[in-house]
Structure formats: structure tokens, C-alpha cells
């Protein structure tokens, strides 16, 4: 049952990461448009910088949770050689759970900031694009990242029977 939930969750995060990929493709088209308009027609696209800022926030944020669940982030193993397996497992779980708590706090603060941005009708300077949808997307993405880290920490603390056999 837990494996099914994890597979479903990974599919959801992959779908979200594909959304980040679509935003990246749109950003590439925007850059091509900007270059074409600037150098061939002498008419730069005035809102390109703002759209690039907003797109970059989505590209990075939407990819974080999927990268975490597929263990694509860079890890450095300094203590693994010197610690015995149970201590290393507990330390790994602790790092995951502390990271999850930190990211949950950051997600909560980002959510409050986005809610304030919605209340104040905060928009970009030139194109007047509301900022809150992008800020909410970042907050949700950070919350999903925290959930992934919490699940990884719990899986490390309480491995399944197949994982226990792998450890021994």
C-alpha cells in the first residue's frame, strides 16, 4: 500500500516537474522572440526581464520535489566510511527530518508572503503581472519538497522488509 502511494506521489511530482519543463520551453521561445525583435526590428520586448524572473522562479521551484524523490540532488558522503551502518542510518534520517522541518518552515513563510502579496495586489513594475500565483507555486513546491524529505527520513528510520534485507 505504501509503495503504491509512493509511486502515485512520484508520478504527481514528475507531472509538476514537466510543468517546469514547459515553462523552460516557453522561456526559450521568449528569449528567441526578444533577440529577434531587438536585433532585427530594433524593438525590444519591454516585459521580457519580468517574464524571465517569474519563469525562473517556476522552473527552479517545480523541479525541486521531483529531483528530491528521485534522489537527483548532489550528496556528499563524508562520514559513511567511518560510521557503522545503524549510526549512519540514524544520522541520515536525522538530516532528512531536520531538512524537512526547515523546508516546511520556509514553505509556511513563503505562503504567508504570497498571501500578503495577494492582499496588497503586488504586481510587477512594467507589465503589471500579479506576483502571488508564482509565490504560491513556490510555497507549494517547497511544501512538497519538505514532504519528500520527511518521507525519506521515515523510510530510513523504518525500512520495509525488502530494504532491511538490503541493509544487512
UniProtKB/TrEMBL annotation:
<feature type="transmembrane region" description="Helical">
    <location>
        <begin position="90"/>
        <end position="114"/>
    </location>
</feature>
<keyword id="KW-0812">Transmembrane</keyword>
<protein>
    <recommendedName>
        <fullName>TRAP transporter small permease protein</fullName>
    </recommendedName>
</protein>
<feature type="transmembrane region" description="Helical">
    <location>
        <begin position="12"/>
        <end position="33"/>
    </location>
</feature>
<comment type="function">
    <text>Part of the tripartite ATP-independent periplasmic (TRAP) transport system.</text>
</comment>
<comment type="subunit">
    <text>The complex comprises the extracytoplasmic solute receptor protein and the two transmembrane proteins.</text>
</comment>
<dbReference type="GO" id="GO:0022857">
    <property type="term" value="F:transmembrane transporter activity"/>
</dbReference>
<keyword id="KW-0813">Transport</keyword>
<dbReference type="InterPro" id="IPR055348">
    <property type="entry name" value="DctQ"/>
</dbReference>
<dbReference type="GO" id="GO:0015740">
    <property type="term" value="P:C4-dicarboxylate transport"/>
</dbReference>
<feature type="domain" description="Tripartite ATP-independent periplasmic transporters DctQ component">
    <location>
        <begin position="27"/>
        <end position="151"/>
    </location>
</feature>
<feature type="transmembrane region" description="Helical">
    <location>
        <begin position="134"/>
        <end position="154"/>
    </location>
</feature>
<dbReference type="InterPro" id="IPR007387">
    <property type="entry name" value="TRAP_DctQ"/>
</dbReference>
<feature type="transmembrane region" description="Helical">
    <location>
        <begin position="53"/>
        <end position="69"/>
    </location>
</feature>
<keyword id="KW-0472">Membrane</keyword>
<comment type="similarity">
    <text>Belongs to the TRAP transporter small permease family.</text>
</comment>
<dbReference type="Pfam" id="PF04290">
    <property type="entry name" value="DctQ"/>
</dbReference>
<keyword id="KW-0997">Cell inner membrane</keyword>
<dbReference type="GO" id="GO:0005886">
    <property type="term" value="C:plasma membrane"/>
</dbReference>
<keyword id="KW-1003">Cell membrane</keyword>
<keyword id="KW-1133">Transmembrane helix</keyword>
Amino acid at each position: 500500500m505504501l509503495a503504491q502511494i509512493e509511486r502515485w506521489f512520484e508520478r504527481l511530482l514528475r507531472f509538476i516537474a514537466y510543468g517546469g519543463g514547459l515553462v523552460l520551453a516557453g522561456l526559450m521561445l521568449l528569449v528567441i522572440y526578444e533577440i529577434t525583435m531587438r536585433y532585427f526590428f530594433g524593438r525590444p520586448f519591454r516585459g521580457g526581464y519580468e517574464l524571465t524572473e517569474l519563469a525562473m522562479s517556476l522552473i527552479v521551484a517545480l523541479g525541486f520535489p521531483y529531483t528530491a524523490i528521485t534522489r537527483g540532488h548532489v550528496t556528499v558522503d563524508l562520514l559513511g566510511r567511518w560510521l557503522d551502518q545503524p549510526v549512519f542510518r540514524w544520522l541520515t534520517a536525522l538530516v532528512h527530518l531536520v531538512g524537512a522541518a526547515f523546508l516546511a518552515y520556509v514553505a509556511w513563510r513563503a505562503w504567508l508572503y504570497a498571501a500578503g502579496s495577494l492582499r496588497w495586489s503586488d504586481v510587477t513594475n512594467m507589465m503589471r503581472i500579479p506576483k502571488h500565483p508564482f509565490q504560491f507555486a513556490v510555497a507549494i513546491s517547497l511544501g512538497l519538497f519538505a514532504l519528500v524529505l520527511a518521507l525519506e527520513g521515515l523510510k530510513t528510520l523504518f525500512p520495509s522488509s525488502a530494504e532491511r534485507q538490503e541493509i544487512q
